[in-house]
Amino acid sequence: MQAVTEGDRRKELHTLLGRIQAHPERDWSAVRTRIATLNKLIARAPRTN
Predict the structure, then answer these.
(1) Predicted pLDDT of residue 1
(2) pLDDT of residue 28 exceeding 80
(3) In this structure, are residues 16 and 31 in contact, taking their beta carbons and an 8 Å threshold?
(4) What is the DSSP letter of 25?
(5) Where are the beta strands (DSSP E) in 1-49?
(6) SS3 of 41, please?
């Protein structure tokens, strides 16, 4: 099993936002919850310089 990286989370976030934009007429409640979770995880990720 591989660890999930910040890059993986950013890719998932980008994909989910694209799906919402392509089909705004759908109910995206569960996806919006996942987006909020991803945003929190990305914000807490340690910064590398």
Answers:
(1) 78
(2) yes
(3) yes
(4) T
(5) none
(6) helix
- Give the Cα separation of 27 and 9 in Å (integer): 22
Tokens at residue 47, please? 């910064």
Q: What is the pLDDT of residues 29-39, one digit of tens each?
A: 999 999 999 99
Q: Residue 42: left (phi > 0), alpha (psi -120 to 50), or beta?
A: alpha
Residue 46 confidence (pLDDT) above 70: yes
Res 48: pLDDT: 64
From 2, 3, 4, 9, select the one nearest 40 (Cα to Cα). 9
Element housing 42 (H / E): helix 29-44
